[in-house]
Amino acid sequence: MDIPWWRDAVVYEIYVRSFADSSGDGVGDLAGVRERLPYLRDLGVDAVWLTPFYTSPMADGGYDVADHRDVDPLFGTLSDFEALVAAAHDHGLRVIVDIVPNHSSSAHPWFQAALRGEGRERYLFRDRTNNWKSTFGGSAWTRVEDGSYYLHLFAPEQPDFNWRNPEVHGEFLDILRFWLDRGVDGFRIDVAMGLYKAEGLPDIGDQSFKAVSPVWGQPEVHDVYRDWRRVLDGYPGERMAVGEVWTDSLEDLALYVRPDELHQSFNFAWLQAPWSAAAFRKVIDDTLSSVPFATWVLSNHDVVRHRTRYAADDPAAGPARAKAAVLTMLALPGSAYLYQGEELGLPEVTDLPDAARQDPIFYQSNGELPGRDGCRVPIPWTVDPPSHGFSPGAVPPWLPQPAAFAELSVEKQEGDAGSTLEFYRRALACRRDLVRSIPYTLEWLKSPEGVLFFTRGPLICALNCGDRPVRLPEHDEVLLASGPLRGDLLPPDTAAWLRRAS
Ligand code: GLC
Hints:
The structure is a single chain. The chain is an alpha/beta fold. It folds into 3 domains: about 10-100 and about 165-350, Glycosidases (TIM Barrel, Alpha-Beta Barrel), CATH 3.20.20.80; about 110-150, Oligo-1,6-glucosidase, domain 2 (Alpha-Beta Complex), CATH 3.90.400; about 440-500, Immunoglobulin-like (Sandwich), CATH 2.60.40. About 25% of the residues lie in helices and about 15% in strands. The chain has helices at about 30-35, 35-45, 80-90, 110-115, 165-180, 220-235, 250-255, 270, 275-290, 305-310, 320-330, 360-365, 410-415, 420-435, and strands at about 10-15, 45-50, 55, 65-70, 95-100, 125, 140-145, 150, 185-190, 240-245, 265, 295, 335-340, 445, 450-455, 460-465, 470, 475-480, 490, 495-500. An 8-stranded parallel sheet has the order 11-10-9-5-2-1-13-12. The protein has a 5-stranded antiparallel sheet with strand order 14-15-16-20-18. Helix 5 runs parallel beside helix 6 and helix 11 (about 320-330) packs parallel to helix 14. The two termini are about 30 Å apart. The structure holds alpha-D-glucopyranose. Alpha-D-glucopyranose binds near residues 190, 191 and 301. InterPro entries: GH (IPR017853), GH13_cat_dom (IPR006047), O16G_dom_2 (IPR045857). Pfam families: Alpha-amylase.
């Protein structure tokens, strides 16, 4: 069988608002992405995933889509998008775009019509509410003028579609074709376990919410992905789809990647695992035994950056652990998704002033939850303020960058062999050389407690999550390490790739 491109691909998530601003308004845009494509090619990734750039009032950073077939003026135009796809392909990079099928913006013409009483069955209007909560805090229901309520699992500006209405289904098939016709290589499907809600919208009872949720993971959703798969398969060039599927178990996750459904589904169990060899090993084993094609990820625009997550019990350990974790991830069978800025070792920005925050989670929780702005701070390209090269002009970026970003900027790290950026470049180049020649499978080698050793053909990956240096397994050559080795010893918070003694 030919191996599809996405099976081992390294995909780089671009949170468009925060990547690069070409227009000087302080917000990233598509032309900014295009200008930085050589950076991504040199980094050594295979594809980019662009977060939503569609027409939107930006109540949830663009995940509130008002027109699924156009580009918001904040991000550019449809021709900017077409130019970006063409340039990416010229650089050998594939392009994945985000599709948001669970809800629209309240500014979407369908919802505006619904408010006037037309076509309400495209959304979930009811005379009475149930006890469901919005993922962002507060009730999942908002009252409209005539006294009825509509369901929104996220912000009130994100009304949920009624997927039991075939018109919604048809509309999304058409939206997929619209972007496939413009050359996209795949889709990232937002809230892919949403879409259908249990018939009758029953209250969430005393029974475990997780086990029998009327909200998420209804069986009907799989027929949607079967239809989408047929559309994707109808286009040349191995077009693919990756689901944002939050589930409680990898068995549930596996349902979304059956051969006639989605190609990939993010493995959030890996992202949620604490800094622990035993926890990592369990997720790796469970993943490889439950899904046909593993899809690893450590950070994205919704979670605390992994450099900061891993530092919870030891603030100084974050940078080393983040590098060790990514080197381990890149050695695993399957595809890996990186999030912009992790290659610079960016930490979560935890001290944003309240007035600067934009995430609806912060507002809907009345400031109790910080929200996700801390992982969305614009990328520092150069050392100098005001925007560290993010914007061409003097307009401040849409979220303020901390002074520490100067030292972490691309300009500062490029060419410095000890930098995180150069480490990522070496790791991705080495992976590219190896990945197609080693088996998809993994074997564990005996290792001390707190340490993992696994092999894939001639490659050995060693990770030390313990607190003492350990002897490396027998090998011919050290290919790469996430930090300095001490002779034959692997220090704590360090990973290494070795070539195996033949
Ligand atoms: C997904 C997105 C997140 C967004 C939510 C609602 O989880 O990744 O950023 O807020 O869906 O669309």
